[in-house]
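Bug #77: duplicate submission created two jobs. Keeping one. Sequence:
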Amino acid sequence: MRLERLTSPAAGAILAQDPVVLLPLGTVEVHGRHLPLNTDMLAPEYVIDRIEEQLPDVLILPSLHFGTCDTQTEFPGTLSLGPKLLYEVLMKIFESLYRQGARRFAVVNGHGPNSAPLERAALELHRRGAQLAVLNWWRYVWDINPDWRGGHGGGQETSAMLAIAPELVRPDEFEPAKAAGISADMPANGWDNVLYRGVNIPVPRTDVHVTDNGWLGDDPLESASAEQGFAMLQAATDWAVQLLTELKNMELPISREAKA
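Kept job's structure:
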């Protein structure tokens, strides 16, 4: 059920029943030259639409389209709240519902850097006797099927977009991932790291200095297919339904205030 479609009295009655509250979270950022800027929002919203079909009692919040992606703002169209502001926005949302009785929260997240502000919010809510589960959809499907492991804007996410919104995918813009190091002896090893004499070390840089085409990963774009996308998203949905059912039935932590 969607919070924004309820009247205030109806929302109050539902919040009094201790529902699971679910937030779709993404971002607006570059995903290569072939995928739309809202890739990280479309996937969580798709999964949540499917969750709603199976768990109609889950209270679904309006999508939060803005996340933190400060390293990518050199790419046109990318928008970022930054980690501090995102944490504050999340806590304002959760605190509003906490005051109204909510204690069980979950986020279906589509963007990796959102994880740190989410985990910080989860810890704060835990201290207050609430629970927040962070469901990074692209990450937990790796554990369901290691063949689905993917990078940023690579075959994994492209498969998801081919399933959700194929009209937004630009196969004519497919090109290999590029990862520039900082010297001949220090090649890139992902976004934030370089290798030096076999040792992986963090050297954070703006992403445009790592890849000029906006995507990076070991999953080539040519590996993408709508069939894989549908399979991943269905698996993500089925697992999330089980997790949210467990969250609904679990015992909540004792709040720090209650212990005092």
